[in-house]
Structure formats: C-alpha cells, structure tokens
Amino acid sequence: MAKKTYDLLFKLLLIGDSGVGKTCVLFRFSDDAFNTTFISTIGIDFKIKTVELQGKKIKLQIWDTAGQERFHTITTSYYRGAMGIMLVYDITNGKSFENISKWLRNIDEHANEDVERMLLGNKCDMDDKRVVPKGKGEQIAREHGIRFFETSAKANINIEKAFLTLAEDILRKTPVKEPNSENVDISSGGGVTGWKSKCC
Amino acid sequence: MEEPPLREEEEEEEDEGDEGDEAGPEGALGKSPFQLTTEDVYDISYVMGRELMALGSDPRVTQLQFKIVRVLEMLETLVNEGNLTVEELRMERDHLRKEVEGLRREGSAASPEVNLGPDKMVIDLTDPNRPRFTLQELRDVLQERNKLKSQLLVVQEELQCYKSGLIPPREGSGRRREKDVLVARASSASSNKEEKTIIRKLISELHLHGSCCQGREEGLPS
User: Can you tell me the ipTM of this complex?
Assistant: First the structure.
C-alpha cells in the first residue's frame, strides 16, 4: 500500500567559495528565511524541498557543501550523484569570481558528465559593494554554455527562479517514461558506500 | 717564557719544541715552518750570527749580515703575527663552539620538535580547541547525521500523511513490530500515554509502508 509523495527525485549540489552564501541561498529556497550570522558549513549538509513542475511532484534533495578548502575531500565525493550543480560566487568578492574556473574544473573531474550546471552571482542586493559586473558573470556563463542568474538570498531575488529553472532543465533531460518513485536510484555513489535501510 | 699559549692538541707540538730546545739552538732550523715560534727565530739568528762571526770581518760578510738581520726580523714578525692570528682564531672557534652547544641545549629543552618538516604543524596539547579527529571520522559523523536527518524527514512525512488522514489507522497488521513497540515503550517510560501512542503508530506505519520507506531510503544521500 505504498503511497507516492513525489514523482521524481532530483539531487542538486551547491558549490563555491566559502562565504558566498550557498547556505543562505538554500535556506531562502527551502525555508523562505534569511540569517545574517555567518556559520561556516561543516563538510556537507542537505535540505529537501518538493516542487511541482509540469504537473509532476518533484522532490529536490539539495546538498549544501562547505566552501572551505579543508573539507574538499569530503565534498567532492558528493559531486558524482548530483544531477544539477549550482556554482555560486559573490558579486562583492572578486576572488570568489576568479575561482569559478577552479570550481568548474572540479565539476569536470568529479561530477557526472551530463550534470546540469548553473552559475549564480549572489548578494546582488549589495550593489554599492559590487566588484564583479553582471556582464562578466554572463560572459563566463556563455563561454561554458551554462545558465546564469544574479541572486540575493537576503532580498529574495531570483532564488526560486534559479532552483526551478535548474529543476526544469533536469526534467527536460529526464526520460519520458516516468520511473517508479519507489525505485528511483539516485544513490550518490561518490566514494561513499550506500547504506541500506534498516528501518523496515 | 716567550712561548705562545698552547693548549689541547697543540701541547704535543709544544713538547716537540721543547725537544728541539734540548737539541740545541740548531734544532730550530729542523722544525716545520708552521711550528716556528719567535724563540726559534732567535735561536736561528744566534746560530747564524755565530757562523757569520766565524767568517771574519770581510766587508762582504758585513754587507750580507745586514741583509740576514733584515730577513730574520721579517721572519720574526711573520712568525709572531701568524701565531697571534692562530691563537685569536682558536679562541674565537672555542667561543662559537660553546655558544652553539648552549643554543642547542636551550633549543632541545624549549621545543623538542624544532626540526619539523615543511608540511608539519605543531599542536598545543593544552589547547582545549586543538584538532583531535580525523577527516575520516568527520566524514563518518556527517554521513550518520545526514542519514538520520533523512530518516527523520521520512518519518515526519509519513506522520503528516497519517495525521491528515491519507493513511487510515490500523491498516494492515503491525503485530510483527510488537517487540519494537515494547522497546519504544521501555525507553520512553517517562513520556505520557499520548506519546506512546504516536510511537506505536509511527512504527506500525513504517512497517506498513515498508517498501515505500525503503525505496526512499535507497534514494537518499549516501
């Protein structure tokens, strides 16, 4: 008598330098809230949000990674299972923009080849402190053939749009034959051996 | 009495010098130039002066005598200067040696791990916030945290379905889970009756929708 609470499960991943606002972006999307205190993410965390697209209930399992270098061996092992990756930089932090190529290389190295990528320039509410022009973000996104949004988790700009667009892009690539939600195999693999359920 | 201060290994040479003295002033001429002392130079000049005297008062001899005296004076200066320099350097060396030993002793007492490699770091064992755990341990803890979190989400979702009446109560049989119910009861002895009921329902529900739950579990992060 298994009931179905969703049709599809998409696994997304947030990456980018420490302090660009990955956790805030996710928190805004999942809980529609914002917190100014900066607490560095320890290793890896996740949140779940179910959205409806084209009449389908899609469960988004969104992985939030630590941007700090010292967690990289842990975080990179989560790339492989991701169907979509959001690369976030901070428009007020030039270094975080320069590092985009490094993050893109990480994706090439550790993620699935057909992973859907997206570039986000966060903190776009802080225009007075902006050091990365919007055009530069657009340019690098164009060069790599990926979508780009400027977002603000604080002012709630483009956050939902970014997640929904990424989910739509993944949905478009998903085979028409709807997989049985009970058997959706999205086990990340990724160096971490899957644990079997013991609950039943 | 004019002997330069000698020590340690040089004592042997000094002895040799003494032997030379015992061999008479001529002995100085048989010495190595590096062991000559001003005393030896005086011995040599004594020997040469005696021989020049024996040659008589020929003016050519007198002329030669001036030159020989000059050469002997030069030798005296060189020997003197050389010995002084050697002695100075020896003192300097001994001083530096002592200083190095002192520093080495000091260093090993203060921090025994001074000679760390380029990729090493020092941990202050008295720091309550010092690093203690390995990356693998962190990885394991995070994995367990995320696993429990995902299980909680599943359970919350099931509970929500149950509360909203999507799943009728007492559907099917939860008997096989009776043991777990007992465990739950025992572990929550202090909780009130209502809570127990929720736990019982939850467990039987988990059992009921086992395949659903398991399917999602497999789909969960690993």
Answer: 0.74
